[in-house]
Amino acid sequence: MTVLDMRDVRKVYRSGDAEVVALDHATLAVDHGEIVALLGPSGSGKTTLLSIAGGLLAPTEGSVVVDGEDITGHDARRLTAFRREHVGFVFQSVNLVPFLTAEENLLVVDELGGGKGGRAARERARALLDELGLAARGSNMPSQLSGGERQRVAIGRALFNNPGLVLFDEPTSALDTQLGEQVMELIRREMKARDTAAVIVTHDTRMTHYADRVVRIVDGRLTADPVPA
Amino acid sequence: MSLKLPLRELRRRPTRFLVATVVLAFLSTLLLFLGGLLDGLYLGSTGAIRAQDADVIVYSSTARDSFLRSRITADVRSEVDAVDGVDAVGGLGFVLLGADVPGEADPADVAIAGYELAPKGVPEVSSLYDGQGVADRRLEDQGVGVGDTLLIGPAKTEVTVVGWVEDTAYLQQGTIWVNLATWRQVQNANRPDAAVADDVVQALVVRGSGDLAAAIDTATGGATSTLTVEEAVLALPGVEQQNSTFNQIIYSTLVVVLAVVGLFFSLLTLERLGLYGVLKAVGASSGRLFAGVVLQAVVVTIVAFVAGSALAMAAAAALPSGVPLQLEPSRFVFTFTALLVASVLGSAISLRKVLRVDPAAAIGTSS
Asked: Per the structure, how many domains does chain B have?
């Protein structure tokens, strides 16, 4: 079943009289449990595509349906609630709340949704950290964690609300090859175990074999690769 | 709505907020000090008039609302007595002098006040013999005790203190309330240039109903100038000027508070734009993030106010008793409320910045 269904999506930025087409009639469907790598040079539109898929940006044309919800016409308030409930994000830079422990960084998602960080939420956070190999790190501050550990906490945060779709923005760019591969392996394992769809933006071709499918983007246009070996 | 995040930041990174808290604490102390001085000066200047249990006070029209310049004759008094709505009329007179206190090297500053209608808290005048008076409690600081006979002014007129009254000071001097005969005796012996005849007083206090002021001034054919008690308080020399000067300084200080809170939280918000972008991306609304900024400003203000109040009270206790600083509960309430309003307004400066954080900026940024 399709989790992300983007059809004929265009995104046009206006700067003065000039029009910049960041995304040109992009159509992309991602199924449950499917991992798609989005590969492209900088300025190709992959950030724009990821932002539109996650409800951070509204498309100029076309439609976006995530988890059965058509978000094309959502206003900012509805998009905020939609992101909180249906999408997980893992960003490129270290983006944990610096004064919260690893466990609390996971619970932020629950609190933003009006949860009280109760026992069930705490147990879920601990179970996730355990799965991600961070059982002993729950009470550590981000500054006490390595880069790979921080990225794993960020993955835990993205998974906390059981989203149908998780979007990864260059998740390994700040890591060395070995750590990067470990993180990609973890992403693959977690996505498959949960049957969660993932779109991973990367420019690192060494990481694409963790994906089920590679989609290339150049000048805002998508072209699909054959399924990698 | 859970606001754990901003509270946790305050708890875990208190040093981040230390500078703002310390600056606001000193500003709180300054505000309480200024307010306390204003209250002290105001209360110490006006007690004898605020205590008047009357509706209006009648001066002679040439006195420009000053007791010391005012003279009301028996003729004018009987005209006032006859006005419709007037229930009771009493004479009033003040004289400011030094007084020798038994056992004290320095003379005390006293105001001898002659009265007929008892002000609030002052015993009926019939309970006092000639040469007796009840003294304002503030004279205790200058060595005066009940039973002491004070020698008033250069003529050393004797007045014996027979009891205490509270909050009736006049122009920063402790008032001694006496009957009109004793007041005249003190006035005429020590201020022969301003002597008053037996049936003359400085002013009249009047109890009654209706538009008394206009009725009285009409009935006396313009010989009098009648003020309500509140107007009479403000007509005392310097009171209105003191109020406006101090209030201007207090309001200017509040503008400084607003600027301090505004600048501090603007800088903090600027520092957090990246984090706010990420939090918005994962589902935090602008309202929640802004509420967090306001909450932090309010908590910082509360902590600063508590510290500032403690400092102000410690400093007030250490001051010599001559400084007219009076820390009234109402001043704390006013200062706290004003600080809260200023800090909420100050933190609101960050609202635009928070609103403008684009969650999409969280993607594609590497630092």
From this structure: 2
Do the domain assignments include residue A207?
yes
User: Is residue B367 in a domain?
Assistant: no
Q: Which of A154, A171, A165 lies closest to A195, judged by CA?
A: A165
B212 and B248, same domain (yes or no): no
Q: Give pTM, 2 decimals.
A: 0.83
User: Is A120 part of the contact surface with chain B (CB cutoff 8 Å)?
Assistant: no
The residue in chain A having the minimum alpha-carbon distance to the alpha carbon of residue B16 is A99
The domain total for chain A is 1
CA distance B276 to chain A (A): 10
Task: Tell if the CB–CB gap between A91 and B4 is shorter than 8 Å.
Answer: no
Of the three residues B172, B205, B236, the one that is the final residue of a domain is: B236
Model pLDDT for residues B59-98, shown as the tens digit of each residue? 999 999 899 999 999 999 999 999 999 999 999 999 999 9
Q: Which residues pair with A90 in a beta bridge?
A: A168
Task: Examine residue A136 and state whether it is found in any structural domain, yes or no.
Answer: no
pLDDT class for B367, splitting at 50, 70, 90? Answer: very low
Q: Pull the structure tokens for residue A221.
A: 């246009």
Give the structural domain span for B196. 48-236
Structure tokens at A175: 């890591």
Contacts of B288 in chain A (CB under 8 A): 112
Query: End-to-end CA distance of chain B, in Å?
Result: 31
Question: What is this model's ipTM?
Answer: 0.88
A41 touches chain B (CB under 8 A): no
Beta strands in B31-138 (DSSP E): 56-60, 86-100, 108-115, 132-136
Which of B221, B236, B251 is where one domain is finished? B236
| Distances in whole angstroms, Cα of residue A171 to Cα of each of A137, A200, A222 | 20, 8, 21
Whole domain around residue A212: which residue ranges? Answer: 2-96+163-224
Positions in chain A short of pLDDT 50: 227-229
The predicted-structure confidence for A7-66, as pLDDT tens digits, reads as follows: 999 999 888 888 888 899 999 999 999 999 999 888 888 889 999 999 999 999 999 999
| Residue B217: CA count within 13 A, CB half-sphere | 16
